[in-house]
Amino acid sequence: MPGFRFDRLSRLRRAVFTLARRGDLAGASLLLMVTEPQPRLGTEDLHTWVAALEHLNSANEPLAARECARLLTPLLADRIRTGSDEEDSDLLRLIRAAERASADDEWRPLRRLPELESLGEIDDVELLTRIRSSRSTAHRITAVSARRTSHTISGSSGSGATRLALRNATDHCRTEVPITTTGSQREVEWTIDLRRIDRLPMGVRMHLIATVDGVTHSQVSWPETVRLDSAPGRTARFALGRTPEGGIWIERRVHWILRGTRRVLRRTRPAVTKR
Q1: Structural domains in the chain?
Q2: pTM over 0.85
């Protein structure tokens, strides 16, 4: 094929060609189904994903299996929180298949989801309890404001015992978040004022999570229908955005004067080098 470069394909697409070249058309077909431009994880797709991951694991394609687990992680985040109890046995099987596929992945994509933080240390019964508890309490953001003088996040939770924290998805270090609450034990509305958070590390993206009795419970989801009312200005102390898993990240920024100085230095450095 003129102009075709095999090395420019993604790992998963290369695995499709590799399996087909070996004569493993069933495996190539499975992988092709889960690597389409807009991958899905509906009820009917659970078995396909499980079969694709298990096939890659057994076909000695560890890099493709690892990439497949990374692709799956944001889809799993949504399925854990919006799925039904009837499909949970298939969901558990998929989570365990993805865990095996990403066992050697230093990025540990599944552990980025709070519900799966200690995945290798719990059995299926406890894992199922966590998933259903996360689903029933439904921690959601309802408004995000990033004005010049204030940064506030409002939301709701299905449990009055909820506490919020900011968690580093890499090393799981967390910072407790002071909140203002209204409501009952069954449903609570809360507001966070980012200016009240102490000891937030500089330049690190922290993910907002909900905890119950000090134990990581669930990611706080940021529905796409909830818009940021205004983008943070250049002098804002915090930056924020949506995570691939459908949550929110918050980063304490370096002082705007220092950021401006760095930009000036970056612009002038090439000119100095040319001289």
Answers
A1: 6-134 (no CATH), 138-257 (2.60.40)
A2: no
